[in-house]
What we know:
The chain is built from 7 helices and 10 strands.
Amino acid sequence: MTFSIAARCPATGAFGIAITTSSxxxxxxxxxxxxxxxxxxxxxxxxxxxxxxxxDLMARGLSAGETVRAxxxxxxxxxxxxxxxVDRNGEAAFFCGxxxxxxxxxxxxxxxxxxxxxIANLGVPRAIVEGYEAAQGMPFAERLLAGVDAGLAAGGxxxxxxxxxxxxxxxxxWPLVDLRVDYQEHPLNVLRGLWKAYEPQIxxxxxxxxxxxxxxxxxxxxxA
Length: 224
């Protein structure tokens, strides 16, 4: 019930995932990323354990392809899983279990991978990658959002999507962006609005961790 894109930004080395689904709280269950290491998505009967395990494997030097194969080999129910990964070299890989009952597939682009299940047609992941790649030159977050927007326009899920998430890691151990819409109509529109509100504050939130003495107090509102 999910479609997504995971990518490595070639300009900065950041990793990011944009994802949406018809069920609740997709950002809690499906996208995983670690700075300097890679990104992993776990979809359809999502096994939350696969994300951290996959990142640990890539941190040890495994490629995206090797990581996906290792995750599937170790899974108790590999025939029901949909897994994708992108590594520090921009290599991407995915796996779609043969017992996933709905339409499902994946598509690999330049430093990115899209997967989807319960999708309206098999062209959705390709449309996501093409949307992401067509947004070249825009900020990384905007490219990821353009990807999932293109997937929705291409047919998206067979059911209305209700949750969405945007996850980006860059240089630090914590996420640079971790925005979630947990159960609302038109969650991709809401997610884009959250990004627009968050974008101007990104540097502030990094500075307050690394150099808190440089944080400037907010100006008091003018009084009449």
